[in-house]
Automatic annotation (TrEMBL):
Its EC number is 3.2.1.-. PANTHER family: ENDOPLASMIC RETICULUM MANNOSYL-OLIGOSACCHARIDE 1,2-ALPHA-MANNOSIDASE, MANNOSYL-OLIGOSACCHARIDE ALPHA-1,2-MANNOSIDASE-RELATED. This is alpha-1,2-Mannosidase. It comes from Brachionus plicatilis. The keyword Disulfide bond applies. Ca(2+) binds at residue 566. The lineage of its organism: Eukaryota, Metazoa, Spiralia, Gnathifera, Rotifera. One of its GO terms (biological process) is proteasomal protein catabolic process.
Length: 576
């Protein structure tokens, strides 16, 4: 019955349409005949120009499509059904770059015994994750349960490129299938935008760049679209918490502050999303943040670790290269590299390297001191101008970052030689200190935080407070060892890395599955498992170790072409 009704009502409305069209055609001719010749010419010119305009737009879109890497050509990215366009004020990027071609990268797999051992470690961790936590965020290796954080299968997404690099094809395919069938962003929960970006978005983009499998890009693009409301603030500083299902964002209930590292460590991932999809909104929100941070007052290039999302102003005067500050400095350099690494005052991105260099000078003058008795260089903190000799393990990313900066700046013909020497010297000395933070403890593992002694009469270079004795399987020191070996070619760094790997094997490996963070590195008797295997152990720590042990002749990853995001995910450098 109802279908008959529908058909007949369509018929009537079609008829009515015909009558209206006929009437309007007659009145159009009557009106046209009444016009003077001059008026008719004007109308025809206007018509002609409109047709030209429409045609040029078709051509523009056609060109855009042609620039999309070939594996997208027949699979246009589906827009999320809930997607809402964001306001035009974000759209300040006019050009239309598409600087990569994406193709499947082939990997050798392990070529020596050390690499083989790291792959075994990965498989030991993966097997247990699969058995007890498959599809959940992280494994609890002691209780054989799992912990939830994002509800997005975090360990799977974070591990994708590590498996790819290790040439673990079966595991990679299994993870890929899970992502295609099960990864669902309809999670009604507020999660941290920065953590989501570096791990989930970074993981998907990296997997796409390596494997060229479109599913990763589609998921990355869906994530990007759902995340844009987080950037819709007056100040341009994004909210820290994002609900992917509701596509809403907010500050945490107790503060309107975001952390410096969190708001600044989104750029590489969102820029990459623009380069891949041609959708300029992502790069545009990043430009706004970067410009805002650049314009704010930062004495000696050092920025306080809190920033008010409403006002877009720094809060407090705590300066650290550790928690909440670290990757602001890391991404100044990496974003400059992503934007072409031009050491040229007239380049619109020159401010990034200027800010990075100024901050390195600031770190050198205000935060770096040497210990007593051995003279190890370390990076302390400023708490309202008061120096504290405290250094988080997180700071150990810095030597690698300095070495990376050195590797670019040494190619600039007129870059001051003394500054170059200082950069490399700092990188070498800080790497040594970070290694000593492992070597000087009886377990061979570093605590989360150490305090350094600078008094003349000190007999020990550093000490640990009771609450800071744990080790979370963090990557920063092996990350720096990787850059140092790559850039200086000094094999010593590989030996350091091997010692650290052996210590992880001895004290953090759980007999019947997985690896666990531990409570106390200061005594082999009190190590005690904490029952948590962080996703970054698979995403970063094992990946950097594997790459550190690479034989020079069989290197897979050329730093000329790849940037490594703060969660060790690989993003290509445009036009290289
Ligand atoms: C990771 O998520 C990233 O490396 C981040 O930049 C800092 N913290 C962890 C690892 O320690």
């Amino acid at each position: 019955m109802s279908s008959v009704n529908t058909i007949s009502s369509q018929y009537y409305s079609l008829n009515l349409g015909t009558i209206e069209i006929k009437q309007s055609r007659q009145s159009f001719y009557r009106y046209w005949n009444r016009l003077h010749r001059f008026q008719k010419t004007l109308v025809l010119i206007a018509l002609f120009l409109s047709v030209l305009y429409v045609l040029s737009h078709i051509e523009f879109h056609h060109k855009q499509l042609k620039n999309i890497p070939s594996n997208h050509e027949h699979q246009p990215l589906a827009k999320d059904k809930n997607w809402q366009p964001i306001p035009d004020r974000f759209l300040d990027v006019k050009d239309n770059r598409r600087p990569y071609s994406v193709f499947k990268v082939s990997m050798n797999g392990p070529t020596n015994e050390r690499q083989q051992k790291v792959v075994e470690a990965f498989l030991h961790a993966w097997k247990s994750y699969k058995e007890h936590a498959w599809g959940e965020d992280e494994l609890k290796p002691i209780s054989k349960k799992f912990s939830s954080w994002f509800n997005l299968g975090l360990t799977i997404v974070d591990s994708l490129d590590t498996m790819y690099i290790m040439n673990l094809q079966d595991q990679f395919t299994e993870a890929r299938d899970w992502i295609e069938k099960k990864l669902n962003f309809d999670v009604d929960r507020y999660n941290n935008l920065f953590e989501l970006t570096i791990r989930i978005l970074g993981g998907l983009l990296s997997a796409y760049h390596l494997s060229a499998e479109t599913v990763f890009l589609e998921k990355a693009y869906e994530f990007g679209n759902r995340s844009l409301p987080a950037f819709d603030t007056k100040s341009s500083i994004p909210y820290s918490d994002l609900n992917l299902m509701r596509q809403k964002a907010k500050s945490p209930s107790w503060t309107s502050d975001s952390s410096l590292s969190e708001v600044s460590t989104l750029s590489i991932e969102y820029n990459d999303l623009t380069y891949l999809t041609g959708d300029k909104r992502f790069e545009a929100v990043i430009n706004r943040i970067s410009q805002t941070l650049h314009r704010l007052n930062k004495p000696d290039g050092l920025a306080p670790i809190f920033i008010d999302t409403n006002q877009g102003q720094f809060r407090g005067r705590t300066i650290t290269l550790g928690a909440r500050g670290d990757s602001y400095y890391e991404y100044l350099l990496k974003q400059w590299i992503q934007k072409g690494a031009k050491y040229d005052k007239s380049d619109e991105h020159f401010y990034l390297i200027q800010d990075w260099l100024e901050s390195v000078r600031g770190i050198r003058q205000k935060l770096v001191k040497k210990t007593k008795p051995s003279g190890y260089m370390f990076v302390g903190e400023l708490l309202s101008e008061t120096f504290s000799p405290k250094m988080d393990h997180l700071v150990c990313f810095l030597p690698g970052n300095l070495a990376l900066g050195y590797s670019y700046l040494r190619k600039i013909p007129d870059f001051p030689k003394d500054d170059l020497k200082d950069l490399m010297n700092m990188a070498q000395e800080l790497t040594e200190t970070c290694y000593q933070m492992y070597a000087q403890f009886p377990t061979g593992l570093s605590p989360e935080i150490v305090y350094f002694n600078t008094h003349e009469d000190s007999t020990k270079d550093f000490f640990v407070k009771d609450n800071d004795r744990h080790n979370l399987l963090r990557p920063e020191t092996v990350e720096s060892l990787y850059y140092m070996k790559k850039i200086t070619k000094d094999k010593k760094y590989e030996e350091y890395g091997w010692k650290i790997f052996e210590a992880f094997e001895k004290y953090t490996k759980v007999e019947n599955g997985g690896y666990s963070s531990i409570n106390d590195v200061t005594s082999p008797e009190r190590v005690n498992f904490r029952d948590k295997m962080e996703s970054f152990f698979l995403a970063e720590t094992l990946k950097y170790l594997y790459l550190l042990f690479e034989d020079e002749k069989s290197e897979n990853l050329d730093l000329k072409h790849w940037l490594i995001n703060t969660e060790a995910h690989l993003i290509p450098i445009p036009n290289t």
